[in-house]
Amino acid sequence: MGYSLGSLWRGNNDFNNNRQNVSVGNRLNNRGEMAQKSADAGRNQVQAENHLTYSLISSLRNSDVDASIPPSPVSSPLLSPAAPPPRLYQSAISEAVLKNGSTLVVLPTGLGKTLVAVLVAAAKLNEGGRVLFLAPTRPLAAQHEKVCREWLNLKPEEIVSVSGLIMADKRKPLYLSPARLVISTPQTIANDLEAGRLAFDFSLVIFDECHRSVGKYAYTYVANAANGKLASAVGSPRPPAALVLGLTASPGGDRKKITDIIQALGIQHVQIRTSEDPDVAPYVKPLEIEWIRVELTPALLEAKEVLGELIKAQTETLRKMGFVGQFASKKSLSEMRMRILASGSRLRFSALSHHATLFSLVHVQELLETQGVESVQRFVQRVREREPSKAQVRLLHNPKFMAMVEKLNGAAEHPKLAKLVELARSRPSSEKSIVFCQYRDQVGVLERELTKAGLKAKSFMGKKEGVTAKDQQKTLAEFREGLFDILVATSIGEEGLDIPSVDNVIFYEPVASEIRHIQRRGRAGRAKLGHMFGLMTANTRDQAFFWSSRRKEEKMKKIVGGLAAVSPTDFKSVLNASGRPKGKKSEEPKKSAPQAPKENKDERTEPQSPVAYAPKKKGQSKISDF
Asked: 492's torsion region: left (phi>0), alpha (psi -120 to 50) or beta?
C-alpha cells in the first residue's frame, strides 16, 4: 500500500500526549523541551536540514513502503528567483498534494502555507491549467496577489485580482484570457458563477483559511463548482473536477466540523504538521508561554455575585415557561433562543423577552470578569439609549442591577489593566508587541492607558464606526516602520493580514476557540525567540476558556493526525465511518446568492442578543415585527 512522503515523514506522533505541561497558578510557565531543541537546531539549520534529509531518505529506502517521489514542483520554470527556497516539509507537502489529489493542509501560523500554495499553483500552471486563489477578505487577497506577482514568472496581465469593488459588468472580461491566475474573495466568485459572469474552468482552486468552509459561507458554493457539482448551462457539459487545496492553521477541534469541511471541499487526503514533526522542528523558533493570574477586587466580586443572583432568577423564569437548559455561555443561550423560536408555546414571545434580559446579564457578567469596569459602564449606557422594550425596562428598572451599576461608578478598574501596563513596561524598548482583546470598547481603554503610561500604542480594529481599509493599512505601515511599538487589536489581527512579526503576543483574555488561540499565538517569534503572555482572572470564565481552547487543540491534532495517516485509497471509507453515515450526500446550493457571515464576528461592542419582543399586537405576523 502506498503512502504519501509527507505522511511518512510526519512519523508516529502520539497526538494524545500533552507536551505543554501548563498548570494554572500565580504565574504559569511553559518553556517546553521542544523550545530548547528548536533553539539548538536553529543554531546550525543547514546542517540539521541536511542530516534530516539524508536520514529520512535512508529510512524510506530501508522500508517496505512505496517511497516513490514524483517530480518536484520546485523545478518549475514558473517559479521566480525571488521565491524563497522551499523547506523540506513544504516540498513534501506540495508533492503529496499533486500525487494524492484534493488535500487539506494543516500547518501552524508562520510556517509558510502560502509558499506551499505557490508551489502547487506553479505545477498546475506549468501544465497549462488555470488557478483560482481564494482568501476570505480583500486585504488578504491583496496580500496573496503581491506574493504571487513576486514569486511566479507570469506576465502582469496573467495575474488578475477581482473583488466586489469592481462593477459586476466589468468583472466578466477580467476572467478571460490572458488571465491564468485569478485571486479573489469567495463572495465575489460565488456571485459571478451564479450570474453567469464566470465559467468555471480552473484546474486548481486554493482555499486559504479553509476552516470557514461550513454552513452558508461562500467557500462551500465555490467548492461545489470545483468538484463539478453545480448545474451547468443547458447543453453544456459539466467541467471536470478541479484539484482543491485547503489551507488552515486549524480546522477546529470538533469532529463534525472537520468532517463538514472535508466533505464540503471534496478532500481526499490530509497533510498535517506540528512544531514537533522532524521536518518542521528545525524551522520552529522557541516560544516562551506564560499565563499570569489576577484576582478580582472585592468590589468586582460583589458585583459578580449580584449578577449571578439576577441570572439565576431569569433562568428560573424561563424554566417555569418550559424552557430548560444551560445558560452559562452565549453559545448555549443562542441555542436556547432557537429552541424558543421553534417552539409552538403560547409563551414563546414572553420567553424571548426574558431571554433577551438574560443574555444582557450574562454579557455584563462576562465584561465584568474579563474586561473591566469601563466596558460595563459603556454597555449599560448603550442599553439606556436603545428603543424602549420590556427587556430593557426589566433590566434598567431592577433595583439590584442599578445599585450594582451605581457602586461600580466608584470602583477601581479590573486588575488586568494595571498588570498589562506593568507587563508592557517590563519588556525591552526594542521589542514589538501585539495585545489581543475581544471587545472594541476595551481596545480603546487599553490604548489609552498604555499611552498614559508613556508607551507608544495604537489600536487596530475592523471596518466599523469610521475605520476604513485605508486606515488599517496606514496603521500596519506605521507599526512596520516602528512609529509605535504596541498594536492593540481585536480579532481582525488574528487571521491572515500582513502584520509584521512581533516579539511578544499578549492575550488580554483567553479565547475558547482553538482556531483563534492558534492564530493569536502564531503572531510571535516567527524569526527569533518569541514570548506569549496571557492574562487570566481566577475563578471566572477566563479559566474555562483557557482549558477549552487547549482541549480542542489537542483534539484537533488527534482527529486530523489520524486522517493524515490514512492512505488516499481508504480515505473516503474511513471518513464515512468516523463522520456522517455512508451515502449521505450534501445538498446542492439554492439559486439564491450565497451568504457569507459578517467579518470579525467576535469583534463586538455588545452582545448579539435577540430583540426583546412585546406581546403580539394586531398586524404583527412575524418575529421581526415585534
From this structure: alpha
Euclidean distance between CA atoms 241 and 238, whole angstroms: 9
| Backbone φ and ψ of 16, nearest 5° | -80, -15
Q: Which of 357, 334, 328 is nearest to 540 (CA)?
A: 328
Closest CA to 364 of 330, 413, 393: 330
Say whether 571 sits in a helix, a strand or coil: helix
Three-state secondary structure readout of 258-299: HHHHHHHHCCCEEEECCCCCCCCHHHCCCEEEEEEEECCCHH
Grid coordinates of 535: 492574562
pLDDT band at 552 (very low <50, low <70, confident <90, very high): confident
* Residue 501: partners with Cβ closer than 8 Å, 6 or more residues away: 110, 523, 524, 525, 526, 527
DSSP codes of every residue in 130-150: -EEEE-SSHHHHHHHHHHHHH
Name the DSSP class of 517. H
Query: Which amino acid type is present at position 358?
Result: L
Is the distance from CB of 424 to CB of 453 less than 8 angstroms?
yes
Torsion region of 372: left, alpha or beta (phi above 0 gives left; psi -120 to 50 gives alpha): left
Length of the chain: 626
Q: Taking 50 as the threshold, does the pLDDT of residue 212 lie above it? A: yes
Separation of alpha carbons 222 and 40, rounded Å: 44
Helices vs. strands in the chain: H and E counts, helices first: 22, 14
CA 193 – CA 333 distance, rounded (Å): 37
- Contact assessment for residue 110 and residue 501, using Cβ atoms and an 8 Å cutoff: yes
Residue indicated by cell numbers 412575524:
622
Backbone angles phi, psi at 133, to 5 degrees: -115, 115
Residue-by-residue DSSP string for 433-495: EEEE-SBHHHHHHHHHHHHHTT--EEEE--S-TT--HHHHHHHHHHHHTTS-SEEEE-GGGTS
Overall average pLDDT of the 166-171 stretch: 94
Output the nine-digit C-alpha cell for 7. Answer: 505522511
**CB distance 517 to 511 below 8 Å:** yes
Q: How many C-beta atoms surround the C-beta of residue 31 within 10 A?
A: 14
Which helix H or strand E contains 46, and what residues bound it? Answer: helix 45-61
Looking at the DSSP bridge assignments, the partners of residue 269 are: 103
Place 589 in a pLDDT band, splitting at 50, 70 and 90. Answer: very low
> Could you give the CA distance from residue 461 to residue 116 in angstroms, rounded to a whole number?
29
Q: Is the pLDDT of residue 413 over 90?
A: yes
Q: Write the DSSP symbol of residue 184.
A: E
> Taking 50 as the threshold, does the pLDDT of residue 493 lie above it?
yes
pTM confidence score: 0.70
* CA 608 – CA 605 distance, rounded (Å): 9
- Give the model confidence (pLDDT) of 126-139 as tens digits: 999 999 999 998 88
Phi, psi of 253, deg, nearest 5: -105, 10
β-bridge pairing 27-30 and 287-294: antiparallel
By CB atoms closer than 10 A (0-12, 13-18, 19+), residue 177 is exposed
* Three cell numbers, residue 309: 443572583
For 121-148, letters b (16+ CB in 10 Å) and e give bbbbbeeebbbbbbbbbbbbbbbbbebb
Distance CA(249)–CA(518), nearest Å, equals 7
Question: Which residue has cell 494595571?
Answer: 418
